[in-house]
């Protein structure tokens, strides 16, 4: 709902009047003037933060024509429009104080694939990896490779003329653009492609804006061809942003696409693109070359290029050491052995080929070269070879994470982008970087480096605490020194990531040709309404943005008190890299984003909202630490009247279209599955469930809780009393009246039913004992050596009892002596819903039990990954790492104790659908399931799946039912209902098995249940 004009200031009134006019004109997309959406889209992957007036989500080119046509009328000539794709820009390219036009939510369709002619036509909101997944069955791919390929859109790539790994072979985005469709400022459409001079004359004769554009650009080339050719350095990363040097392509044809590629949304809205495609190489390999200094890796790059690789990437020791602490390391560590020595620099040398023979010849040539120089001063100290697409992609996955990994450095000073994509001729790179490092060292800054040494581009991220005003001033100081340095080495300040706010240096780099850029801007956008202040302005009266005059996140963050900052550090260190906007439905990160395409429903979005919430409270002199303390002292009964009044007032205001910012944050958190994939997969380790819990604790000290929270939170405590008389629970839960009350009053679609199997009775039958002091004391040395204590969780024990018994039985068959710890509430549901005091009591009580039994030196294991991992995560955050005994996942324990592999008993594999928390927070344990099965002679393959959509009680809640099913449909359903995998699937998570039963009517066994059957 749009706000009332009478409540707004003049600028806001103008923008709201514009939005009203747009809506009245038939705009079919979504208009979002709400503060939460504006806050979330006020940042990208840069240091800047600019609050827009509104966000709009067009559904079609017609919607964009409505936006531009109305903005082209006199009442709205001051309206500013800025296109946004994946939000991965590092220089504020898509940030604006006007209207953000997000093309990624709806305009993301692949329109046509012509495999025979090797081209594709797409809407520009399509994500690069999404496109290549669709092209893979045809053996084709869209070439320019990016570290952000799983969230960067084609439109964003075009607007920054993106390139990355392999650009020596594959070039930049513009090299693969065949045709573009652009909505111009007057609402007309521009169709651009390479054209002959005859066609060009026809276009120039038109009296429409497209004719003006063609005439102006043609005249620029005709008048300034000599100056243009003299000005631009011969770099692989040629000057982006109105690429004057390529107005005429290599075949001499006029090509307006080369002006639009790299234009950063300053010329119009690019809505569709026709792209040329390449054939996927049949095989590939990486030669990982190690050095004892980073300088050596840089200087040796040119000799490596003599061996004609496809690409060479470099990584320094800072990035390598950060990778060792990340989830990505378990998949690549075999290629970076400790035995090599002290690795300070790495060159990743890629070879691709269409046959194994061709690949081997290339690798053998490189190996011979390395062996001939290894050990000499400045030469490699060792190398390894990764063969095959799977291994190569794992290492590239680590390299792609480099940007995010740098952001996870400890301390307040964090690596930030502002001089991170300089480009110089490759032969100058080593000398340039040595001087670059001298600049940073001279300013006492730490930094990390990685990049594309084959084409002279290195990504450098100095570590600065932007909350400190004195340190923030170094952005200007360092930038100006680097500008001088790249000019000295005949290079560019912006070799890969576009200009954005750095456009203030355009006049210096373009010199006499800068007015020519202004002519281009004026021809396309005479009113200066498209993303103004970047690349060039329409005339000299309008200033370019400056790097230290645009608001930074640090400017706002420094208003948050230190204690408050530390309390929500799990959110506050988010650097905006957007790894949580991962397109791939078969990746765990982030299911609520995949279901909604709403950036408020992502770790980055939620972190942004919490940071802004802290800042707003601080402006009013309120500290969240004080609010938390008050919440923990609050009397539940005495506080009810006040909570009820506030909740009623909020309900009334919502009906009038007025939403408080607290409610917007709460709505964002309500969609979170608390799956903890962000904690494991985010390179910054943003932990949404942790800061969500802290926010909810404060929020519900002011507002009434929904009944479902009490139902969920108390379940672990109530269920044990119903278990002996399960009909007292199951019969009512199956009745129509209770189901109605659950759905319409408590907010629960349903609840699982208690198992018909009695654990205590079955344990007696199987001679399985309880884990207590007398039992453990009486164990013989042989029994103790084989003993293991199963730590129960409420959901598996009471709702899936047969699985617990299968685990115990399988352990016995494997020669172990299992014991069962008496049930104690884990408290995980309490933590998820912000019941801090109750969770703290549960954690302390459970830990006391564990510590008491740990004195007997018998290992603990847990069945359900989500519950078991709570001990090493939430418990240790609360009580301290050394206070909580280790509770292993089943496969972690068995992998330590079973032989590596047994005699293969069957060629046909079984398939594991792993739990999301297990896969992202204990990643090595997934392969350990394979080890366990292999030890008994069975093959287990890990299926690539995302989240099942249940995540504890999320899928049981009424408001989440639709999203829960949508998440399941995106990844799990096709595997669960695949006849070829019938009776071959296992699932390690209780929630996952519940979801599969609910939505596919398929009972998936736990891996130990299958193993018990096989044994």
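Sequence proposed for the structure above (1015 residues):
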């Amino acid at each position: 709902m749009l706000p009332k004009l009478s409540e707004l200031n003049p600028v806001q009134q103008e923008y709201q009047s514009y939005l009203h006019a747009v809506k009245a004109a038939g705009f079919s997309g979504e208009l979002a003037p709400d503060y939460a959406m504006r806050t979330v889209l006020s940042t990208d992957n840069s240091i800047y933060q600019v609050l827009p007036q509104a966000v709009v989500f067009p559904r079609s080119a017609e919607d964009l024509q409505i936006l531009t046509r109305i903005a082209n009328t006199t009442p709205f000539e001051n309206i500013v429009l800025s296109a946004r794709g994946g939000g991965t820009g590092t220089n504020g390219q898509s940030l604006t104080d006007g209207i953000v036009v997000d093309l990624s939510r709806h305009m993301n369709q692949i329109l046509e694939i012509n495999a025979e002619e090797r081209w594709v036509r797409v809407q520009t909101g399509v994500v690069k990896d999404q496109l290549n997944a669709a092209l893979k069955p045809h053996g084709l791919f869209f070439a320019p490779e990016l570290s952000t390929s799983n969230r960067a859109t084609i439109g964003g790539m075009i607007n920054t003329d993106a390139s990355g790994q392999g650009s020596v072979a594959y070039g930049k985005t513009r090299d693969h653009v065949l045709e573009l469709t652009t909505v111009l400022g007057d609402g007309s459409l521009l169709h651009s492609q390479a054209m002959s001079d005859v066609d060009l004359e026809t276009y120039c004769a038109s009296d429409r804006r497209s004719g003006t554009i063609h005439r102006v650009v043609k005249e620029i080339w005709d008048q300034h061809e000599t100056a243009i050719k003299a000005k631009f350095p011969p770099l692989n990363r040629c000057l982006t942003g109105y690429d004057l040097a390529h107005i005429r392509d290599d075949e001499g044809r006029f090509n307006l696409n080369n002006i639009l590629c790299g234009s950063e949304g300053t010329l119009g809205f690019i809505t569709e693109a026709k792209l040329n495609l390449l054939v996927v190489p049949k095989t590939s390999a990486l030669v990982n070359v190690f050095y004892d200094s980073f300088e050596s890796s840089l200087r040796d790059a040119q000799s490596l290029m003599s061996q004609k690789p496809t690409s060479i990437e470099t990584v320094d020791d800072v990035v390598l050491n950060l990778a060792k602490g990340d989830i990505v390391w378990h998949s690549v560590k075999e290629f970076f052995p400790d035995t090599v020595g002290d690795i300070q620099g790495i060159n990743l040398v890629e070879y691709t080929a269409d046959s194994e023979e061709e690949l081997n010849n290339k690798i053998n040539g490189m190996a011979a070269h390395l062996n001939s120089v290894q050990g000499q001063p400045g030469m490699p100290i060792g190398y390894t070879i990764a063969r095959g697409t799977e291994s190569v992609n794992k290492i590239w996955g680590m390299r792609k994470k480099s940007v995010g990994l740098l952001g996870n450095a400890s301390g307040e000073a964090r690596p930030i982008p502002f001089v991170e994509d300089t480009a110089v001729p490759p032969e100058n790179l080593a000398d340039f970087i040595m001087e670059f490092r001298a600049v940073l060292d001279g300013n006492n800054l730490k930094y990390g480096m990685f990049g594309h040494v084959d084409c002279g581009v290195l990504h450098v991220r100095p570590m600065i605490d932007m909350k400190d005003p004195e340190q923030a001033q170094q952005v200007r100081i360092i930038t100006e020194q680097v500008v001088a340095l790249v000019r000295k080495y005949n290079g560019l300040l912006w070799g890969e990531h576009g200009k954005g706010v750095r456009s203030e240096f355009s006049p210096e780099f373009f010199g006499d040709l800068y007015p020519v850029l202004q002519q281009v801007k004026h021809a396309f956008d005479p009113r200066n309404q498209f993303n103004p202040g970047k690349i060039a302005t329409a005339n000299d009266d309008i200033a370019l943005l400056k790097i230290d005059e645009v608001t930074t996140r640090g400017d706002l963050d420094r208003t948050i008190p230190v204690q408050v900052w530390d309390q929500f550090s799990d959110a506050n260190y988010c650097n905006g890299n957007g790894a949580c906007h991962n397109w791939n439905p078969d990746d765990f990160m982030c299911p609520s984003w995949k279901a909604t395409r709403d950036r408020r429903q992502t770790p980055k979005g939620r972190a942004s909202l919490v940071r802004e919430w802290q800042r707003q409270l601080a402006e009013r002199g309120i500290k969240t630490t004080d609010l938390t303390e008050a919440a923990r002292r609050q009397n539940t009964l005495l506080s009810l009247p006040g909570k009820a009044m506030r909740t009623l007032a909020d309900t009334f205001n919502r009906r009038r279209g007025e939403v408080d910012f607290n409610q917007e944050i709460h709505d964002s958190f309500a969609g979170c599955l608390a799956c903890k994939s962000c904690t494991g997969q985010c390179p910054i380790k943003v932990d949404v469930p942790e800061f969500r819990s802290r926010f909810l604790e404060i929020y519900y000290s002011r507002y009434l809780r929904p009944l479902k929270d009490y139902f969920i939170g108390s379940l672990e405590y109530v269920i044990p009393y119903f278990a002996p008389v399960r009909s007292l629970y199951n019969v009512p839960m199956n009745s129509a009246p209770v189901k109605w009350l659950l759905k319409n009053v408590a907010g629960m679609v349903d609840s699982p039913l208690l198992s018909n199997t009695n654990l205590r009775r079955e344990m007696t039958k199987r001679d399985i004992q309880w884990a207590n002091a007398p039992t453990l004391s009486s164990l013989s040395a042989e029994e103790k050596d084989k003993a293991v204590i199963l730590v129960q969780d409420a959901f598996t024990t009471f709702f899936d009892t047969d699985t617990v018994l299968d685990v115990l039985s399988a352990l016995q068959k494997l020669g172990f002596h299992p014991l069962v710890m008496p049930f104690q509430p884990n408290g995980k549901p309490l933590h998820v819903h912000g019941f801090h005091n109750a969770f703290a009591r549960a954690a302390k009580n459970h830990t006391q039990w564990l510590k008491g039994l740990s004195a007997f030196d018998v290992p603990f294991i847990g069945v359900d990954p989500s519950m078991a991992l709570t001990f090493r995560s939430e418990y240790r955050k609360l009580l301290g790492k050394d206070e909580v005994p280790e509770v292993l996942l089943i496969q972690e324990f068995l992998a330590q104790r079973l032989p590596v592999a047994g005699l293969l008993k069957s060629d046909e594999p079984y398939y594991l659908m792993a739990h999301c928390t297990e896969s992202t927070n204990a990643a090595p344990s997934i392969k350990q399931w394979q080890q366990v099965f292999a030890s008994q002679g069975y093959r287990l393959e890990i299926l690539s799946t995302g989240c099942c959509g249940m995540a504890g009680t999320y899928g049981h809640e009424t408001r989440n039912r639709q999203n829960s099913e949508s998440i399941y449909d995106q990844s799990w359903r096709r595997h669960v209902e695949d006849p070829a995998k019938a009776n071959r699937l296992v699932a390690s998570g209780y929630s996952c098995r519940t979801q599969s039963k609910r939505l596919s009517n398929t009972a998936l066994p736990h891996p130990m249940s299958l193993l018990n059957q096989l044994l």
